[in-house]
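== Fold encoding ==
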Amino acid sequence: MPLAPATRVNYFDRQFIRLAELRDEQAYHLQQRRRHNLSHHSWGIVAGLELLHEDGHPVVRPGLAVDGYGRELLLLNRAVYGREQFERLGTRRLDLWLEYRLDFGDDRLAPAECGSADPNRHYRAIERAEIVVTRDGARPDPRHPPGVPVTAFEDPLLATPDDPLNRWPVYLGRIVMDIPATGEATFEIDTADRIYVGLNAELIDHPGSAGRIELGRRPIAEDVKRVGDDEHRYAPGAKRDFAVFAPGPGTGALEPTLAVYGSATQIRGNTEVHGNLVLDGASLQFPDAGSGAAAPSEDVPSIYRSGDALRLDMGTLEGGGRNLVIGVTKDGAFIEALEVRFSSAEGALTPKATVIVHGDLHVDGTIDSADVRTRTVTEEVAALLTGMVQTTIAAGSN
């Protein structure tokens, strides 16, 4: 189909309908649908078309894809591959592609004077999808499939040809066959380079709530959206490249729950990480939250900043004592070095903290205490230590 403005048939009373009007009517809807596929989405696999093992053989399941000309490729039946396909092409590696086909079908109600070979008997044009198997060579580039003119990859591509000779294969994957010395052949499947349909948009709005996703949009002014009787305001962000807005309390402008900038990522609200958090060559920083800041949650341990102090808060002791343990791991076992135990006796106003050192304690400086001797030993031992210290001082003075 040549690229031309969208043209509809203009119907009126007592109009003489020719074959051209019927063809143009059909072509109009074909072009509109395929241009939607090209402009609102990117081409590739839409649904299904999985390449996987079933009963020891590679299988392509039914599914739908859209090629680079906006044509829909609907595969209705599963396709099974075995050793014979490899031997027929003389290779142990096959690449699978899905291509557009156009067949013509007969109509059993066609006039009797039409013979079986008469083209006028073909009352139906059937759009099909066919899997094309090729011998693998170099690693294919699925985004630039073979047989497509270089100019077709230039944006915007709005041509929607219907001729199957205008090829645009959609890559499904690669199958590698291994033939052992004894036994049946085995097959390895590689689907790493498959192309899937995407969405071309700068903004995705939830129709019934304040939910919103910005994709590359950089609003410089506050935006307003109405949903029924509710009015939602979105804060501007001239720098953000990606943002997620989630409905929440408050009457002010919504700030993004997640915002990605060129040099930073911001997250608002509580964040739960189910797994390990790895900081590779970076630091964990705690900006000043203001004086008198409280822990994000009183019932769980947390680290936060309050004024000039960095707090490691063990949380409440209502559920029992809490321990802070520092150590190392050796041969799969954790070895404790320093332990701080927090406990609160019934009726006590201030929780008690006990520090336990597993190993030697080296103090490079002073110990600030009213009387470290009486705090750590009995009075008899303290008196003995005092005498020893005085004797040592007297001996040194001589």
